[in-house]
UniProtKB/TrEMBL annotation, chains A, B:
NCBIfam families: hisT_truA. It comes from the Bacteria. Substrate binds at Y111. The lineage of its organism: Bacteria, Bacillati, Bacillota, Bacilli, Bacillales. This is tRNA pseudouridine synthase A.
Length: 246, 246
């Protein structure tokens, strides 16, 4: 048996999310179906660094799987990309140590969230960036980002539907916003993210940018440990799982 | 009765083309359906500067229609955009002179064609730019562009399925390729374009860029007045109707 790891990209638009579920097309199911074909009907389980929700994209999701087929990494890449639908792509397949685990070995992740900040929407970007027509105070957003960085209990920034066990203390090592072409891109890097955490951070920071909240209110939001203290959850389609660190 | 004109954008991916046809979703039918709802079931005909094929996009297509409704231009814009599907958008609606005709008054058009010229495809651009992994000789493409500019009989660059009446003499006022971010963009401006002409020009220029044809071969291709003398037809999804001139 060989353990292999690879980086997958996907356009989350037409998926019900990453993880296999009874109803709806999922990224995991598409990859497992492709692997099953290569293994003459035998089930091959794929493990990712974590799930993503419906509509959320990835450019650097990590997966691993094991196989008894004797195929070199480049062969896996060609074979899988030929079988996968055109909204999923796998790259950089390599042999992994027997002990490697795409989820348990994760040291951190980077998410990016794209905002189209102009009066009119851009229909060619409608699945890939969130249209915010209001003028945004970038300096205020950057100030609020400073309060989010560091180790905090992020209960206020976690969906009430979360089923996470254990505490909600996480460390954000970087929170920032930067222009990229005609878009604004939020960057969040951290040791781990709670359910919907990035989308709630973005929703909150946009309220700061619109002047509906002051940057320093973020401090009280964190202290409240109450989801209702923070801002709205931004929609999924601006969000990209950018990179997973090991 | 008021005549109105407006600029429409559309993502051609999910359409069978611009023009109404018995089978398949079309841009014209979607706009006419929206107008029909505003006119209590009465049919309102929409006229565009010309058709576009399945998968071809537009950022500056011009349309006109007439109506007996007393709605100011901004009201039309709001009402139509609220009713149109999210892959069509109308902007810049204005009153037009009674004699204005979106098709007959056209003085010229600009098309752009986007190429993703890198080894790996980008799944987020898969509907909006044509992936060409081979290295391209941009200087050779630019030289070939010079031979295309001017007034020529473009029979060799017109689909054999064309039903155009009259001659195939057209004037290309600008043919060029330029980098834009990580893409290459072909720009064609001219008095008129034959059926599939831009896609055949792009297919031919890409063969020049790959070194399969010499730039000066374009001269003989034009003189041949024979579709088989020119290169392949590039796929529709890289093509954008960029602007219509009046």
């Amino acid at each position: 048996m060989q353990k292999l790891k690879g980086i997958i990209q996907y356009d989350g638009t037409a998926f019900a999310g990453y993880q296999v579920q009874p109803n709806g097309r999922t990224i995991q199911a598409e990859i497992e179906t492709a692997l099953q074909k290569m293994h003459k009907g035998q089930t091959v389980k794929v493990t990712a660094s974590g799930r993503t929700d419906a509509g959320v994209h990835a450019v650097g999701q990590m997966i691993h799987f094991t196989s008894d087929l004797d195929i070199p990494p480049e062969g896996w890449e060609r074979a899988l990309n030929a079988m996968l639908p055109d909204d999923i792509r796998i790259d950089d397949i390599q042999y992994a140590d027997a002990g490697f685990h795409a989820r348990y070995d994760t040291k951190g992740k980077e998410y990016r969230y794209k905002i189209l900040n102009q009066k009119d929407p851009d229909l060619f970007r409608r699945y890939y960036s969130y249209h915010v027509p209001q003028k945004l105070d970038i300096a205020a957003i950057k100030e609020a980002c400073r309060y989010l960085e560091g180790e905090h209990d992020f209960t206020s920034f976690c969906s009430a539907r979360s089923t996470v066990k254990g505490d909600k203390v996480r460390t954000i090592t970087k929170a920032d916003i930067q222009p990229e072409g005609n878009e604004l891109v939020f960057i969040f890097r951290g040791t781990g993210f709670l359910y919907n955490m990035v989308r709630i951070l973005v929703g909150t920071l946009l309220e700061v940018g619109k002047g509906e909240r002051k940057p320093e209110e973020v401090i009280a939001m964190i202290e409240a440990k109450d989801r209702s203290a923070a801002g709205k959850t931004a929609p999924p389609h601006g969000l990209f799982l950018w990179e997973v660190f090991y």
